[in-house]
Specification:
Layout: H1 2-31, H2 34-74, H3 92-108, H4 113-125, H5 129-144
Helix pairs in contact: 1-2, 2-5, 3-4, 4-5
Length: 150
């Protein structure tokens, strides 16, 4: 729940920032000179890109949460079996061991979204965020019945 609140607060701050930047872009355009209109248009592009990025990330998180809820209802969520250091960080060797099992599971069942979901969690635990995101995107596509991009 704490992560959800943090995400919502961050999103609200970003939207406020985008509105603020957008209003400055409109002010620059209203000035009417070639230079300020050019800068105003450039400034307006930034909030549009930011809002698109925020929307895509929100959709990704929502879809991943749907998969997690479905997997939890089936009793298939990965169990946290990772060893941790005294400070609470995940032990790298433990994460690598779990990752190897999850990767083998995904390779054995490449069309099963559940195995890709668990692989995404293993990538995340191994601190490989880009690959975790790609594995989760594949799990979402397989779950939704969309073609998977390799």
């Amino acid at each position: 729940m704490r992560a959800k609140i943090t995400y919502l607060v961050t999103a609200a701050v970003l939207v406020f920032y985008f509105v603020l930047v957008g209003s400055r872009g409109v002010m620059l355009i209203q000035t009417g000179t070639l230079l300020t209109v050019t800068f105003g248009v450039a400034v307006l592009i930034l909030p549009v890109i930011g809002l698109w990025f925020l929307w895509k990330n929100t959709q990704f998180v929502r879809r991943a949460n749907v998969l997690a809820a479905e997997l939890e209802a089936e009793g298939g969520l990965p169990v946290d079996e990772l060893k941790r250091t005294p400070s609470g960080r995940i032990d790298r060797d433990s994460a690598d061991e779990v990752f190897a099992r999850r990767k083998a599971e995904a390779e054995a069942a490449p069309d099963d979204w559940r195995s890709w979901f668990r692989l995404a969690v293993a990538y995340h635990d191994a601190r490989d965020t880009p690959r975790a995101r790609k594995a989760m995107q594949r799990a979402i596509a397989l779950h939704d019945g969309r073609p998977v991009q390799v």
